[in-house]
Amino acid sequence: MQIIKDKQIVDDSWSFVADDEELKDGDISISLARWKKDKQQLLKPNGKIGVRIGPADSVEDIAADLKDIQLIELDFPAFADGRIFSHAWLLRGRYNYQGEIRATGHFMRDQVFYLSRVGVNAFSLEKTEDLPVALSNLNDFSVNYQKSIR
User: What is the fold, at CATH topology level, of the domain defined by 2-137?
Assistant: First the structure.
């Protein structure tokens, strides 16, 4: 599968491991609940580790662990939930997270420009055929009223 990362279409090396699935080697992302439960096991070197955060999760729950996490996936369960934008801003602005922040789930292509302004640098779209249009959406506006987090 391909994603947009740092304004380029690239192959995705990550896979999400659901809470009821066995952990595997390689670059994996897991839920925040699983991170809290299995953190010591996940810190062993079997690949890179990412954590998926939903709108109801708290970024503060992983703030102390950000040095050990290479990917934060911000999961949009629905188009109408904007708390993910705040999560991205907090990760970059308050906690100075320098790793990959990826939007995943049910976000719209039209939101990628605004997500990038609050710190998201990667986008996993449901349909890979939408990648070129979403990539062009990153350049929708040349003038901004407010400073970007990045």
Answer: TIM Barrel (3.20.20)
> Cα(4)–Cα(129) distance, rounded to whole angstroms?
12
User: What residues does each domain of the chain span?
Assistant: 2-137
Q: List, for residues 93-113, the tens digit of each pLDDT value.
A: 999 999 999 999 888 777 888
Q: Which residues pair with 4 in a beta bridge?
A: 9, 123
Residues 33, 11 contacting (CB under 8 angstroms): no
The answer to whether 73 touches 16, Cβ cutoff 8 Å, is: yes
Which runs of E-coded beta strand occur in the chain?
A: 2-5, 8-11, 15-16, 28-31, 49-53, 71-76, 100-105, 122-123
